[in-house]
Amino acid sequence: MRAIMASLFCGMLFGAGLAVSGMINPAKVLNFLDFAGTWDPTLALVMGGALIVTIPGYLLVRRLGEPLLGGTFHLPTRRDLDPRLIGGAILFGLGWGLAGFCPGPAFAALSTGHAMVVVFVVAMAVGMVAFHVLAERAIST
């Protein structure tokens, strides 16, 4: 139960951080990506702040050996760039650039109740399910 409560707290803290930073506002994200027009550099500060927290946290994880609330850490072990990773990064970037949302902020933006957010999250979920189905078919053949 402690692990569930800790996960809930971390998720809520993450969502609140996304809301406070403006990451759930697609217009703000799109302005960040618009270097030639109405460029808004404030999200670079958000990314920098995320790195300031993540880097020491990652170093701590490597020292601890196991999570405080049990289980195991799931750290990446591969260091190569394969076509799936590159293709996924391209699709992610295109989706972020076109819609102004990525998965985390989109879920946090559901709290706004805007129809376009719901449409985006549903479309994202359908895409994830479609990928899973297609990947399973490719593995089984």
Describe the protein:
The chain is mainly alpha-helical. The protein has helices at residues 2-21, 26-33, 42-64, 83-99, 103-109, 115-140. It has one domain (2-140). The protein is globular. The termini are far apart.
Spans of at least 5 consecutive residues whose pLDDT stays below 50 are none
| Share of helical residues | over 70%
What's the overall geometry? globular
Domain count, please report it: 1
Radius of gyration: 18 Å
Q: What is the total tally of β strands?
A: 0
For the terminal residues, how far apart are their CA atoms? 41 Å
Strand content: under 5%
Record the SSE blueprint.
Layout: H1 2-21, H2 26-33, H3 42-64, H4 83-99, H5 103-109, H6 115-140
List the defining traits of the structure above.
single chain; 141 residues; mainly alpha; 72% helix; globular
What's a concise summary of this model?
The protein is mostly helical and 141 residues long. The chain has 6 helices and no strands. The chain starts with a helix and ends with a helix.
